Model the fold of this input.
Amino acid sequence: MIRPIVQKMILLFFNGTLALPRSVKRSILIAADSLFLIGALWLSFSLRLDNWYWPREGLSNPIVLLVLFAPVLAVPVFAYFGLYRAIIRYLGMRAVWSIVKAVMVYTVLWGLAAFLSGVQGVPRSVVPINAMVTVLAVGGSRMFARWLLRKIEDLVHVVHSGDGVGVSHQTRVVIFGAGAAGRQLAVGLEQGRECILLAFVDDSIELHGRDLMGVPIISQAKLQDFVVSHQVDDILLAMPSITRKQRSVIIEHLRPLNIRIRTLPGLIAMAQGKADYADLHDLDINDLLAREPAEPDEVMLQEQVTGKTVMVTGAGGSIGSELCRQILQRKPKDLLLFEISEFALYTLHNELLDTLHYLTNEKSNRGTVGLVPTIIPLLGSVADENRVSDIILTWKPNIIYHAAAVKHVPIVEHNIAECIKNNVLGTLVMAKVAIERQVERFILVSTDKAVNPTNAMGASKRCCELILQALAEEQTISFEPMWDGKASAQVASTTQLAMVRFGNVLGSSGSVVPYFRQQIAQGGPITLTHKDIIRYFMTIPEAAQLVMQTGAMAGGPSKGIGGRVSGEAEVYVLDMGDPVKIIDLARRMVELSGFKVKDENSPEGDIAIEVVGLRPGEKLYEELLIGNNPQATQHPRIMKANEIFLPWSELQPMITTLRIAAVNGDVMMIRSMLQLLVPEYEPDEKVVDWVYREQISQAGKPER
Done:
């Protein structure tokens, strides 16, 4: 009963002290320093004369006046060196050095004043003695106040529950890595009160058994016993310079500990106070991938977009937005953001404006501003030919990255007609206008689901590829009427068409990783569609750079911008390494979040993994190639596929029939045409389109 009352009184005193106006705090410091300065001089005389010194004449003695004059001389010096601006609770070595410098200047000035005044009885050795005593008094008092305030802060680090007071839990952490990043992270953590640093872990044998910042450095072999004995909550990774493969190996060694592994986006930012412990986040699959990311050819990327007008469709999506970020870094002349979602367009536009402002200021500080890109947000649908034509005619983009697509497999299966309108017809509209307006390059973002598809989304993306492959074969092209448009005359094609195909993108909308993380945060279970399902993974920046790289490579290394190879729409794929088994991914995420998987072998575990069955159109595994004849490119991690396609004269009537079926919402015709266009397409027997099912139900017909 007494302890909560004492805690509450200390809390009130502590908060009251912190709430004092700065002028009051400064006055208290000046008053305390004045007493310490006078006391330090008295002690200096006593030490020099080897007795407790007191002038016989009292206040009439000139030496007493010199002693009392010390605060008048010292306080302005201390103020100049910032001793009254520093926050006592967060004093560091830089503040200590400021104290030393201020005291040295003050003692020299006081010594000069004493000797120039002609006052007798002031030993010269009093000056250096006074300097040492004053440093101990002024600096020591501040260090003691810092220690006391931090201890009180620890004691009253409380949460209120009604009228009571309860102590909050401080996370007990270990930093993995005793290098510069680890030290910076420790300094940043010290500024907050959310955690207690217990130890560093490092593989350097010469560091084992030593202390760093007051805590021990231990080996990885001793980590497990240390975690158990000290009840460690989190391990914080501070190894920014190691490779992804090395990082993956370390994380695998930490998995059996069953404690949360966390990392920080910017350790430097934390050390500078721009981020704190709350910004630490759980590991994601990026940290678990053993494959090193594919490095782009920076020279080729800059040649492709620097000083050019670039258009990105689907700019607000996961890939589209990252494309825009990457393009902006390489200073285009104009960046056209084309997006159907008003909110996504608004959000991305504001983000890119902030980035542009930062880049411009940074370049200005260096005296190298150069070209300032113009960012233009454009609302519209890729299936709206008039809108697309107006935009391309107005800005005449040099290159178009076509990332607009509906991609969520189950949603597409339930809304198949809209998928065809957006993916297939949208791509046809974009390619048609690009060719008619003689855009230099048109790059389609495709997917591994286009290979031997089992769902409408994959089949629609394969149709997009077929359209580009067929159009690339033609020297002159005639398009049939699109919706209510007029049939075009023969158009000479100079546009270089290419497409890039890759696997699952980590962190994109609908990605499995954030979905699993949400389920873990809710206490489980994790729902898995099949225990044997596998996927290829890549990061969003890696995917965006791959798209840009293929745009630079399109047409072959001998072709300049605007070059075109007749009869070839190049399909590029990335060597994505080995696929990841999703159930293993789920287990890693559970264990690296500090929990145990609950299964038959561990019924006492925390998070269960439940298999719920494949969703409509979902495959057990994905493929990147149709056939097995990839060709090498100038990039060691990018391959070029040679795949069979239909000529435009045969493909165009089939696309027209597919378009009519989509406009009329004829689901069965859409499925039939997709199977005709993509013979390897094997849809589920049951049609799950919502409108089709409801219409069949209302008509009283049996479902197909």
User: Anything to note?
Assistant: The radius of gyration is 35 Å. The longest helix spans residues 126-155.
